[in-house]
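Let us practice reading a record.
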Amino acid sequence: MSYKLHSALLAFAVGFLLTACEKKEQPAQQQSIDESAVAVKLTPVQVGEYSLPIASSGLIATENESRLSFKIAGIVSKIYVKEGQSVTKGQLLASLDLTEINAQVSQAKNNLDKTKRDLERGQRLLKDSAATVEQLQNLQTAFQVADEAYRIATFNQQYATIRANQSGKVIRKLINEGELVSPGAPALIINAAAQNSWLVKIGLPDVDWVRVKLGDRVKVTTDAYPNFTFDGIVTTINEGADAVSGLYQAEVKVNPSNKKLASGLFAKVQIIPAEKTKLWIVPIEALVEGAGKQAYIFVVNADQKTVRKVAVTIAYLEGTQAYLLSGVEEVREVITAGSAFLTENSTITITK
C-alpha cells in the first residue's frame, strides 16, 4: 500500500514539474516574438485644397533702368557722378569736349548767314530783272539746306552731354574721362531706386506658365536678409518664350518693406497661384526611399501586424510636412516613427 502511494506521489510531482516548465516556456517564446517586432507610430493623413507653389529665382532690379549715352562721338571731358551716387531728374552727369562740336555749330551758323544774304540779294536782283526765277529758287533751296544743317549741329551740341532722365542711383559707370566714345555706346546706367519700384525678373517653364496669373501673391527671399520674407505680386507675364532659354519671362514687383535693396541681388521667388489643387499631407518622416518627386511610405495592413510599401508622388515639401499629389487616396494613416527600420517583411507593434 505504501509502495502504491509512493508511486502516485512521484507521478504527480513529475507532472507538476512538466506543467510548470511548459508555462515558463510560453512567456519566453512570446517575449522573443515581441522583441523581433518594430515599434511604430501612426499619423492620420490630412487632405485639403492647396495652392501648389511655383519656385523660381532671378536678380533684383528696378522697374525703370536706363542706359544713358552720348548721341555723337567725342572725347569724354568730365564725369560728374560716381557709382552708387544718388541723382535727380535733369542733373548733369557727363559731358564731351565741345571743341569740335562748337566749331561745327559755328560753321553751320556762318553758312546759314551767307545763304541768307545770297537769298536777299537774289530777291533784289529779281525785282530789277537782273536774276531769273530759277536762280532765286536755287538760292532759297541753299538757304533751307543751311538752316537744317544749323539745326542739326545745335541739336547735337545739346546732346553732347548726359543728363539724368529720372531720379535714382548710378549703378554702373562704363566710361572714364579722356576716352573716345562712339555714338549710342552706353556710358552710365541708372535706376529708379529713389522710387522704391523694385522687381525680380524670372523665367518660367510652360507647365508653370499656364498656372500663373497676373496679381498672384509672391514670397521673395534673399541671402542679404536670410530671416526676412518680402511680399510681392506678379505684374508681367510674357506670351512668348525666350529664344535662348525656352522659358517664359515674368516680372514680380517686390514690396521693399523699408529694407535697403540694390540692383543685382540674387532672389528666390515662390509664387502662390490662385488656382488650388487637392493635396494630401503627411509628416516628412513618413517618406522613405525618395528620389526626385517619387517616394514611398509604409502603411499598416488590416491585421495590424504587417506592413506594405506604397509609392507616392510629392508635390512639394514645406517645414516638417510633405504635400502629396497621389498614392494615398485610400490611406487613412501612415507610419511615421519607426518607418526607417521597416521592410515589407517586417512585423510591427503600434505604440501611442
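A brief commentary: The first strand starts at residue 38 and ends at 40.
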